[in-house]
């Protein structure tokens, strides 16, 4: 079967728009007639208009269109058609992509955001929009798919096997999103409006939580000047409440001899503590899309397009943060599981710091993604086609983490209140169920005569990321029995990433300071909040109005955060130092820029031949990539001017004299051979084989050059990290894919089975070195430090965390089965019944290590679930459509975010959605939908299920809406 025939069929399917065209077998027969007519000199446009198209509207049409896209692709690919995205109101592209085989999602705040492909985390997934590299607001390589409204994306493809003409970067796979092409629209003018209201059924449990939300979108596509100019515009708005009730266990980063057995190397590990919180807020996303196409001649096509998405989040967390401080607490009745303390009674010692913090956190996150492109496609000759593409992608993010701590006083009414040091905390973890808790101060948590605000801190993360790229591709058609065409291209890109940290702190989260005294609360500042439902056994607490508290604490105006060395940093000029002052040098050292310049070129031969009378198509080629990466750096030279030390002034005007600024980095080159072969065994059966060497660069923020350290004022222990480095190299893998695809000719559907194998050469591992002597390594660590109370303590070695390329790789292998069937052989009433489902099994020998205090444990590859399943049962009849969908993944490793990101094991989950709709007439339809029908929680644990991580409930989302098209 020729490539020409494939392309014609694909065009016919795409031209059907919302209505799916005829079956693949009928289309092949009719298109064969078209080719004969074309070769005889008949009018092509007229011939296409005369082809009878049987319209099968609805969800089944989009499934079949996706199968045809897969069938005629030249690589191992999964796709979602425009019809599918238009008919299923996914909140974002993340939700839409999880319906594909071998693809699963990590839920953040109850919403799918990061996607995993074939057991590999989002960092191994490369993404493009209209074929152009996209940057992310996360500081990572992988984009945040919830930033992309499904209403503005016309199609999505997931390339599981690459070809050299695709931009390199996806070891797991490449996701290509596309916006509308107006000249390919079915009608001359197309206008669509969607409006939906939304309700979350758990919002009434969250004090101050918002119950209702809404979605609205419209799009227009039009063709003008005899179909030589096309215009498309679109707008999509999402406003939704974000609510959850949660328990979060914190990392096991403390150790002590709890069981009384003197084994210095086998001290028990103790959690930092845990949190119990109500979380709420509002999310607002506004997306915009525009495109214009111009075909001045039949040999030239000019396209310009733009995409913009703004995602703003206002979020709060109210509740408790329990700090056990187990290495300095008196511990009674300890419960130990596998050397980890999962329960006991923790009593604060005289000089200890065990405490219960009442937290009132307010976070804002303002993310913006922009993408612009300009493309010229020119048929230079009958055989030679040239394509030039110019693109810009940028992402900006401002995340402000605002924290307000309150502690219990003996009496808040006295002029000089004293912290209540009589603290006793009892708890027992119950694995993946909520724990048992008890507090001797419980009665004070709702008493404004006892609770006082002790500290306010705000810690902004300001990220920007942008890439400008230039690409030239050429394709030369051949009259050859083996090669159908030859392709070559070159691409150059420049990327700049910057991260800026800021800080403002006042007070202490563990004490009452005389220099920065606590704030007395008043009735108008607080509300008493009760936990309910599954969490009703947790104690009540005071929720504090952040703005009222801050205005009372800072009557002259709330100070703003800055990037500053801090007056307690030893590198600051002596005249600017303050004994016991804050050391916030991390805000400077963790800020900086990363630069990445990439030159890539490829050559590829497209095949169209026969082997033993079996038609064979595909491609073979090689891609060369040269990468230059470097980052700004501050090297500590101890203030030695001859070694390059300079006076560096921060935003507060403080001058540091210790560091030498510079730029460091490296250049490397890679060659990536790739091959895709497709064997057409019969008209409905085909076999695919693919082999490739692939790479994924480190997350862009990991290429920064920064080293930071802190000194624990309680113990004097020094801990530090340099977990980023511009000398990190990419992840490399050699992969193989084999798949068998059978497309049903009597009915609509397909059966696909695939196996894959990835040989991973290396990973980036982060190691923690215990008892690291920072002073001996050249860090400017003083012999003694001054505590907040004026006493001194000797500094001592602690943990040092650093990242390196680890050449200890391994395999990832697995199998996938997908089955889709529209049961048209059933009696007429049931002919709209159908099923689509998939199952994926993935395993790996790769073990990575994470540190739990002084103990290092092995974990599976992040993102890997051995079993992933999707299933959709649907039925359509005379305008009515209903379907229920489920997606399941079993246990996997990823990160949860508490005080800091923590690597944990997530429990398996099954998320079920339901939708029903009725198309009243050709223009107007109504819809009802429930997301997360069973209110599936997110649960995680450390190491084994006894060590509780997160237990988080998000609630069900109900949607009612209508759409209008003409």
Automatic annotation (TrEMBL):
The keyword Membrane applies. Gene3D superfamilies: TonB-dependent receptor, beta-barrel domain, TonB-dependent receptor, plug domain. It comes from the Bacteria. Keywords: Cell outer membrane, Membrane, Receptor, Signal, TonB box. Residues 462-933 form the TonB-dependent receptor-like beta-barrel domain. It is found in: Cell outer membrane. Residues 72-173 form the TonB-dependent receptor plug domain. Residues 1-24 form the signal peptide. Its main location: membrane. Belongs to the TonB-dependent receptor family. This is TonB-dependent receptor. It comes from Rheinheimera soli.
């Amino acid at each position: 079967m020729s490539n020409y025939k494939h392309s014609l069929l694909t065009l016919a399917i795409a031209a059907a728009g919302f209505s799916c065209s005829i079956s693949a077998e009928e289309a092949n027969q009719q298109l064969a007639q078209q080719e004969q007519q074309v070769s005889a000199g008949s009018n092509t446009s007229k011939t296409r208009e005369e082809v009878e198209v049987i319209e099968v509207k609805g969800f089944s049409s989009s499934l079949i269109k996706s199968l045809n896209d897969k069938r005629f692709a030249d690589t191992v690919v999964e796709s979602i058609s425009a019809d599918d995205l238009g008919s299923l109101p996914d909140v974002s592209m993340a939700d839409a992509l999880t319906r594909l085989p071998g693809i699963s999602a990590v839920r953040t705040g109850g919403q799918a955001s990061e996607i995993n492909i074939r057991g590999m985390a989002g960092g191994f997934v490369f993404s493009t929009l209209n074929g152009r590299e996209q940057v992310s607001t996360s500081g990572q390589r992988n984009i945040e798919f919830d930033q992309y409204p499904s209403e503005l994306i016309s199609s999505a493809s997931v390339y599981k096997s690459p070809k050299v003409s695709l931009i390199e970067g996806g070891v797991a796979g490449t996701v290509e999103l596309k916006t509308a092409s107006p000249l390919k629209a079915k009608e001359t003018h197309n206008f669509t409006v969607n409006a939906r209201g939304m309700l979350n059924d758990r919002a009434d449990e969250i004090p101050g939580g918002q119950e209702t939300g809404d979605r609205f979108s419209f799009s227009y596509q039009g063709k003008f000047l005899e179909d030589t100019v096309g215009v498309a515009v679109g707008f999509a708005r999402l406003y939704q409440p974000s609510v959850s009730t949660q328990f979060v266990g914190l990392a096991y980063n403390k150790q002590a001899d709890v069981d009384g057995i003197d084994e210095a190397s086998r001290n028990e590990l103790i959690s930092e503590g845990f949190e119990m919180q109500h979380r709420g807020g509002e999310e607002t996303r506004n997306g915009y899309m525009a495109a214009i196409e111009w075909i001045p001649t039949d040999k030239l096509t000019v396209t310009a397009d733009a995409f913009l998405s703004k995602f703003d989040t206002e979020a709060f967390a109210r509740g408790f943060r329990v700090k056990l401080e187990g290495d300095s607490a008196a511990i009674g009745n300890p419960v130990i599981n596998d050397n980890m303390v999962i329960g006991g009674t923790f009593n604060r010692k005289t000089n200890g710091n065990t405490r219960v913090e009442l937290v009132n956190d307010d976070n804002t996150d303002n993310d913006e993604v922009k993408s612009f492109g300009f493309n010229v496609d020119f048929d230079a000759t009958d055989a030679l086609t040239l394509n030039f593409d110019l693109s810009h992608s940028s992402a900006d993010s401002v995340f402000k983490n605002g924290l307000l701590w309150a502690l219990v006083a003996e009496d808040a009414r006295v002029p000089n209140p004293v912290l209540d040091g009589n603290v006793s905390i009892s708890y027992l973890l119950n694995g993946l169920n909520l724990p048992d808790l008890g507090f001797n101060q419980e009665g004070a948590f709702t008493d404004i005569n006892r609770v006082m605000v002790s500290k306010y801190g705000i810690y902004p993360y300001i990220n920007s990321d942008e890439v400008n790229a230039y690409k030239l591709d050429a394709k030369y058609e051949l009259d050859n029995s083996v090669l159908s065409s030859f392709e070559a291209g070159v691409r150059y890109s420049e990327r700049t990433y910057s991260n800026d940290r800021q800080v403002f702190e006042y007070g202490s989260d563990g004490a009452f300071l005389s220099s920065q005294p606590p704030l007395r609360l008043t009735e108008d500042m607080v509300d008493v909040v009760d936990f309910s439902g599954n969490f009703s056994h947790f104690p009540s607490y005071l929720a504090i109005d952040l703005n009222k508290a801050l205005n009372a604490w800072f009557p002259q105006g709330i100070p703003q955060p800055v990037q500053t060395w801090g007056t307690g940093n030893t590198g600051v000029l002596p005249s600017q130092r303050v004994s016991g002052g804050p050391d916030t040098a991390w805000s400077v050292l963790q800020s900086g820029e990363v630069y990445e310049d990439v030159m890539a070129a490829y050559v590829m031969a497209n095949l169209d031949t026969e082997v033993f009378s079996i038609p064979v198509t595909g491609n073979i080629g090689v891609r060369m990539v040269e990468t230059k990466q470097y980052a700004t750096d501050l090297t500590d030279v101890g203030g030695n001017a001859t070694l390059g030390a300079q006076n560096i002034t921060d935003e507060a005007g403080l001058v540091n004299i210790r560091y030498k600024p510079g730029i460091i980095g490296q250049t490397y080159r890679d060659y990536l051979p790739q091959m895709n072969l497709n064997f057409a065994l019969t008209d409905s059966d085909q076999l695919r084989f693919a082999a490739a060497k692939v790479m994924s660069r480190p997350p862009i923020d990991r290429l920064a050059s920064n080293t930071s350290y802190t000194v624990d004022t309680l113990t004097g222990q020094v801990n530090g990290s340099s977990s980023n480095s511009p000398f990190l190299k990419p992840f490399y893998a050699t992969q193989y894919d084999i798949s068998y695809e059978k497309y049903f000719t009597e009915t609509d559907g397909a059966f696909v089975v695939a196996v894959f194998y990835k040989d991973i050469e290396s990973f980036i591992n982060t190691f923690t070195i215990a008892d690291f002597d920072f002073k001996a390594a050249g860090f400017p660590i003083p012999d003694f430090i001054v505590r907040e109370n004026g006493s001194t303590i000797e500094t001592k070695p602690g943990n040092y965390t650093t990242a390196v390329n680890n050449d200890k790789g391994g395999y990832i292998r697995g199998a996938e089965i997908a089955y889709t069937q529209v049961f048209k052989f059933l009696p007429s009433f049931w002919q709209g019944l159908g099923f689509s489902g998939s199952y994926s099994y993935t395993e790996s020998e790769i073990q990575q290590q994470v540190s739990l205090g002084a103990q290092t444990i092995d974990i599976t590859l992040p993102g890997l679930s051995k079993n992933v399943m999707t299933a959709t049962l649907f039925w359509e009849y005379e305008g009515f459509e209903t379907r229920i969908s489920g997606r399941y993944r079993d246990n996997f490793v990823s990160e949860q975010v508490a005080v800091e990101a923590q690597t944990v094991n997530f429990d398996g989950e099954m998320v079920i959605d339901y939708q029903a709709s009725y198309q009243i007439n050709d223009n107007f339809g109504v819809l009802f939908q429930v997301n997360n029908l069973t209110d599936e929680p997110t649960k995680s644990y450390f190491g084994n299920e006894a060590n509780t991580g997160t237990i988080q409930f998000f609630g069900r989302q109900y949607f009612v809406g209508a759409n209008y098209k003409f």
